Amino acid sequence: MPTNAQAPTLDGSGSIPLYVVKPAGTPRGAVIVIQEIFGINPGIKQKADDWAAQGYLAVAPDVFWRQEPGLEFNPDVPEEFQKAVGYMMKHDFDLGIQDVEAVIHWIRREQGVAKVGLVGFCMGGKIAYMAAARTDLDASVGYYGVGIDQMLNESHAIAKPLLLHVPTADGFVPAAAQKAMHDGLDGNAHVTLYDYEGLDHGFADTFGARRDEAGAKLADKRTEEFFAANLG
């Protein structure tokens, strides 16, 4: 999907492409939408559109822009899925969190919206966790985040609300990793984990073969209530 705005990087050396959707009237807050490995595809664009319809300034940054801007893949096409995995494997997550921080600054300074949340999916779910630990976001949500169990040493730095949606049959996050997440995070007052019994990775996809309608609606309802409570 074409982007329609840009945010300067923290060091001013480049510009991060953004898909921005403004609500009618004054935003009640802002929601950064972090893609899966498939780019700002129609599903992510629709999620941003939906947040704007609920009164939020919605901003979806092009996460892979440093490798190649404008990438877009269909998760239901095996060849495209594998290409997307390749881009994720080459992604610099530490530098990517700096880009998230730059987008937060752009929203607050250039768009005048003080309260900023973030919701991410798959790879974006991991980014949601990292951003909760490394930035001053007001609230973060991760759907089926991968690799969080390997970053639990950062959990002490989480100072604002974080919500994680965890499908128990996630083929990319095995049971041992899920247990480690619960063991490491259940005692953290800022973190809430919801398990979705029998659901797999991608269950909240906007559309496509991976979507589970009931599970997606439940998780999305919880996310909406979470942002309403923490973003105003």
Describe the protein in words.
The chain contains six helices and eight strands; from the N terminus they run βββαβααβαββαβα. With 232 residues, it is an alpha/beta fold. Helix 3 packs across helix 4 (123-134). Helix 1 links the parallel strand 3 (30-34) and strand 4 (57-61). The chain has an eight-stranded mixed beta sheet, sandwiched between helices. The model has no long low-confidence stretch (mean pLDDT 97). It starts with a strand and ends with a helix. It is globular, with a radius of gyration of 16 Å. It has helices at 42-53, 78-90, 93-110, 123-134, 175-185, 213-231; strands at 5-8, 15-21, 30-34, 57-61, 116-121, 139-143, 162-167, 191-196.
**Order of strands side by side in the largest beta sheet?**
1-2-4-3-5-6-7-8
- What is the distance, rounded to the nearest whole angstrom, between the alpha carbons of the first and last residues? 29 Å
What share of the residues does DSSP label as strand, in percent?
15-25%
Q: Describe the biggest sheet? A: 8 strands, mixed
| pLDDT averaged residue by residue | 97
Briefly note the structural class of the backbone.
alpha/beta
Radius of gyration: 16 Å
Shape: globular
Measured as a percent range, the helix fraction is: 25-40%
Tally of DSSP β-strands: 8
User: What letter string, H or E per element, gives the SSE order?
Assistant: EEEHEHHEHEEHEH
Low-confidence stretches: none
